[in-house]
Design a protein that fits this description.
Length: about 210
């Protein structure tokens, strides 16, 4: 089920990540066999572990196909673009050519993410695993902000959000002890025009 919401100015697409893709992500993180790159930045000074992915690994997990199709659904809001000609690809990281700009956030009690926005054209969040003891605070800890309005959707495991990369959002301080595991990602969009691939130039968020 894909739903395109407009709680304020920008649209937010919500859909469910397939169960097998969730399992593949979680199994990979639980295995501890991911590359621990010493150049990985401590984004926003949050002080908790991030796990990055290569493009080949994302293909193997099954995420690339799922997120490409979902991103094209998100693009349907822009009537001036032919979605059939859209090419969706991962944004490059700023710190290493090895990884795509796709990473797992491993939250525990006291962890949070301050208000921020992303690079790229379309960004997203997939909820990989939520603690069973999560209270209403933790289940609504993700907030999107636009102008003076706030949208804090109910979080359930598997839910995926796609949104304009410049839409500000944050995660409030976690109360429960067990791990809250989410995936964040940044996508670039190109359109084929007269046989040439051109970078998408969406209207800016005001």
């Amino acid at each position: 089920m894909i739903n395109l919401y407009r709680p304020f100015g920008p649209y937010i697409l919500e859909c469910m990540c397939p169960d097998d893709v969730l399992k593949n992500f979680n199994d990979f993180v639980d295995s501890g066999k991911y590359i621990k790159d010493t150049n990985t930045p401590d984004m926003l000074g949050r002080g908790f572990e991030l796990v990055y992915f290569t493009r080949n690994k994302l293909d193997d997990i099954g995420f690339t196909n799922f997120i490409s199709n979902s991103a094209k659904e998100y693009l349907k809001q822009y009537e001036n673009y032919d979605v059939k000609n859209a090419v969706i690809c991962y944004m490059d990281t700023s710190f290493s050519p090895v990884f795509a700009d796709v990473w797992v956030n491993r939250y525990f009690k006291g962890n949070y993410t301050p208000p921020h926005y992303h690079g790229g054209h379309i960004s997203g969040i997939t909820l990989l695993d939520l603690p069973e003891e999560s209270d209403q605070h933790d289940l609504h800890s993700l907030e999107f902000m636009w102008s003076n309005e706030i949208y804090h959707p109910l979080q359930v495991t598997g839910k995926t959000f796609l949104f304009d990369s410049k839409l500000k959002h944050w995660v409030k301080t976690q109360r429960c002890v067990s791990e809250r595991r989410t995936l964040s990602f940044n996508l670039m969009v190109y359109f084929q025009k007269n046989g040439i691939m051109e970078k998408w130039r969406p209207e800016p968020i005001l």
